[in-house]
Amino acid sequence: MWFKNLLTYRLTQEVPFEPEALETALASKPARPCASQELTTYGFVAPFGKGEDAPLVHVSGEFLLIAARKEERILPSSVVNDAVKEKIEEIETEQMRKVYKKERDQIKDEIIQAFLPRAFIRRSMIFAAIAPRQGLILVNSASAKRAEDLLSTLREVMGSLPVRPVTVKAAPSATMTEWVTSQAAEDFHVLDECELRDTHEDGGIVRCKRQDLKSDEIQLHLGNGKVVTQLALAWQDKLSFVLDDKTVIKRLKFEELLQEQAEQDGGEEAQQQFDASFLLMMMTFKEFLPALFEALGGEDIPQGV
Family, per the entry (predicted)? Predict the structure, then answer.
C-alpha cells in the first residue's frame, strides 16, 4: 500500500469522519458490474480484502483509507462510426433518399445499444486516504478528473463534503525555477530530471532526463526565460517524486528503508503488512506535506475558510 501519485485536498470545515457512519454511507453505493445496456458504473469497494465481510473503510491509527471502482464498457468510436456509415449507405441505396442528422443520431444510438452487450469491460480502482486531524484528503492519482469523480461520489453518499484542492501562496514554477538556479529548500534535493517551458505563447518545451540540472546548458535555458514546470525531487532520505506547476505529485517512490520498516512492523500476515505500509506512508505524509507546502511559500487559505 504505497501511493504512486498524490493529489491533496483541504477540508474547509471540520468533518467527523466516524468510521462506522462512513462505512454505512459507502455501503449505500457499492461498486457493481455494468448491466447489459450500461456504459459505466461507479461505486465503493473494500480497499483490502474481498468478499462481503471486507470493510469499505480501513482504519489505521488516526487515518482512514477508502477505494472506489469504475467499470466501463469500451466501445471504439471507429467501430460505431463504420457501422453507422454502413447502415446509412444501405438506407440511402434501398430507399433512394437522403439520411439527415436527426435520423443519423437515432441510428447511432440504436447501434450503440446493440453493440453494448458485446463490448469489452474495463475496471479501474482509485484509493483515497483521509487524515481528519490534518484536515486533508489524499487521492492516489495524478488526474484531477479521476480524483473529482471519487470526491463527488463521496460527497453524494455523505450528503456534504466541503473540500477544495490545496493551493500554495507562491507559483510552484517560480519556486522550482529558483531551486534549479540556486538551492532547494531545506530537506529537499533537486534530482536529475525536469521540464522547462518558454513563457511566451507557443513557446518551446525542453524535457531533461538524467541531466545535471546545474549544468551550463540548463542554466542557459533558464537565463533565456524558460521556467521549470516539472521537477524531480527527493525529500530527506524517505521519498522521491516529480512535482509539477499545479502542485501535482507524480511518480512517488518510497525509499527501501521505509519499505523494509513496514515489512518488519507488519510481520507475516498480509492484512498486517497492508496496515503497516499504509500507516507508515501516512505518518511520512504527515511530515512531508507541511514541509512541501511551506517550501512552496506556505499554503494559500482563502479568507473566511
Answer: Belongs to the RdgC family.
Rg (CA), the chain: 24
Weakest-pLDDT range from 199-203, 212-216, 226-230: 199-203
pLDDT-derived band at 7 (thresholds 50, 70, 90) equals: very high
CA–CA dist 132, 179 (Å, integer): 32
Task: Take residue 12 and report the three cell numbers written for it.
Answer: 474547509
Q: What is the pTM of this model?
A: 0.84
- pLDDT at 305 > cutoff 60: no
Report CA-CA distances (Å) from 118 to 41, 42, 123: 16, 20, 16
- In the chain, the amino acid numbered 26 is L
Supply the DSSP string of 13-37, one letter for each residue: S-----HHHHHHHHHTSB--PPPTT
Q: Where are the domains of the chain?
A: 7-71+120-165, 77-117, 172-295
Does the domain spanning 7-71+120-165 belong to CATH 3.30.310? yes
